[in-house]
Design goal:
D-amino Acid Aminotransferase, Chain A, domain 1, globular, 9 helices, 21 strands, six-stranded mixed beta barrel, alpha+beta, 440 residues, D-amino Acid Aminotransferase, Chain A, domain 2
Length: 440
């Protein structure tokens, strides 16, 4: 089956994409599909299976081994691509190291992309994936941006399901709800030096034991926030995230760049700023663009703020738009927006109606809402941290204490988080929760 044309991910609103970024993606797809009649497509039905002869013990979900984020399950899936022949048959085989040449393209030119998603063991003892098709489509866009080969996203989905079916039963035992972290990755293994389109690549999928970085839905409320930061250094006192806004000379992404793609080059350059933030007691960096202070992402998560509009007096759920492709097209982001539009369109009990808005906004907008008493909540949304309430933002000497951070989270953060949690863990039957039939 030939892959369909790529379009920007929709989050429920019509947003234009910048011509340069869109053209780059389409040009990459067109190049990789040229000559496709002589290249073998990625075909999950051809997968071969070799089971491990050295199965390992499953670590405790709260143990040090899990927290180290180094332990993977017994097996992995790989598929090799060459420009001459296309995709070879995928292999499900024992987890282990790769052998690549020191001149491999990925080691010199950052020709790699990846995805992050989770396999859940639900409260009903079923294995589930969450909106996996969106991750597979996004990985195809990321691959196109860095000249890696095209593939059928449905084939990638089937390969992921095969690994989950094989290892999920053992590594997520029944009776113990939890998750494993999935990491599909593609790297250019072409051994030729030189800045050029890779002629060889490797697609692989691993399942990793990962600690729960989200705040428990049942966690007790901490003491009230009192002086959460002093001279730009955060103090303990809330379960919410404490964010340090980036400086003008530290930019994560820019218009026409590759901020929308999940490529390694988006993450390595952020580690210095992240290290500085944590040394000062903050959890993550709030990435700001330009002198105007446009708000983009929080760490590696999409950022949301809830405030009361100065113009209309109505509550708004606001997040940065996709139109300039500066932010990642988050799967959790899209899910938050869709659920908010469907379920917060009218007031229900203590939860007041909210208008969902995707637009540019700046730090001064947040500061103004804070000073006026219109700031209600803020949270980050992503696979690793899930839905994480924000307690504090430090920006150019100013401290913003998010009012509802005096508990675990505000009512909207808590409500949206529970909706998603219920879908992921099978408390609610929903089309986004994809059941995986495990191998017995």
């Amino acid at each position: 089956m030939a892959p369909a044309a790529i379009t920007p991910e929709s989050s429920g609103t019509t947003t234009p994409t910048t011509m340069s970024a869109s053209s780059l993606t389409q040009a990459g797809i067109k190049h990789m599909r040229s000559g496709s009649s002589t290249q073998a497509p990625l075909d999950a039905s051809l997968m071969t299976v070799e089971l491990t002869k050295s199965p390992r013990e499953v670590p405790h979900p709260d143990g040090d081994e899990t927290k180290a984020q180094k332990t993977c399950t017994d097996h992995m899936v790989t598929a090799r691509w060459t420009q001459a022949a296309g995709w070879e048959a995928p292999e499900l085989k024992p987890y282990g190291p790769f052998s690549i040449m020191p001149t491999a393209s990925v080691l010199h030119y950052a020709t790699e992309c990846f995805e992050g998603l989770k396999l859940y063991r639900g409260n009903d003892d079923k294995l589930r994936l969450f909106r996996i098709s969106r991750n597979c489509e996004r990985m195809r866009k990321s691959a196109a941006r860095i000249a890696l080969p095209d593939f059928d996203p449905q084939a990638l989905e089937e390969m992921i399901k095969a690994l989950c079916a094989r290892d999920g039963g053992k590594w997520l035992p029944k009776g113990r709800p939890g998750f494993l972290y999935l990491r599909p990755t593609m790297i250019a293994t072409d051994p030729a030096l030189g800045v050029q389109r890779p002629k060889e690549a490797l697609l692989y999928i691993i399942l990793c034991c990962f600690p729960d970085m989200s705040v428990s839905l049942a966690a007790p409320a901490p003491p009230a926030l009192n002086g959460a930061a002093t001279n730009g250094h955060a103090k303990a006192g809330s379960t919410g995230l404490k964010l340090l806004a980036s400086n003008e000379d530290s930019i994560r992404a820019w218009p026409g760049g590759f901020g929308y793609a999940k490529v390694g080059a988006n993450y390595g350059p952020t580690l210095v700023a992240q290290g500085e933030a944590r040394a000062r007691g903050f959890d993550q960096v709030l990435w700001i663009l330009g002198h105007e202070g446009y708000v983009t992402e929080a760490g590696a998560s999409n950022f949301f703020v809830i405030w009361r509009s100065k113009e209309t007096g109505r509550l708004e759920l606001v997040t940065a738009p996709l139109e300039e492709r500066i932010i990642l097209e988050g799967v959790t982001r899209a899910s938050v927006l869709q659920l908010a539009k469907e379920r917060l369109a009218k007031t229900v009990g203590e939860v007041e109606q909210v208008d969902v808005v995707e637009r540019r906004f700046v730090m001064d907008d947040i500061i103004s809402a804070y000073k006026d008493g219109r700031l209600v909540e803020a949270f980050g949304a992503g696979t690793a941290f899930f839905i994480a309430p924000v307690a504090l933002i430090h920006f150019r000497g100013k401290e913003i204490h998010v009012p509802t951070a005096e508990g675990e989270s505000g009512v909207y953060t808590r409500t949206i988080k529970k909706w998603l949690w219920d879908i992921m863990y099978g408390n609610e039957s929903h089309e986004w929760g994809i059941v995986v039939d495990e191998v017995q």
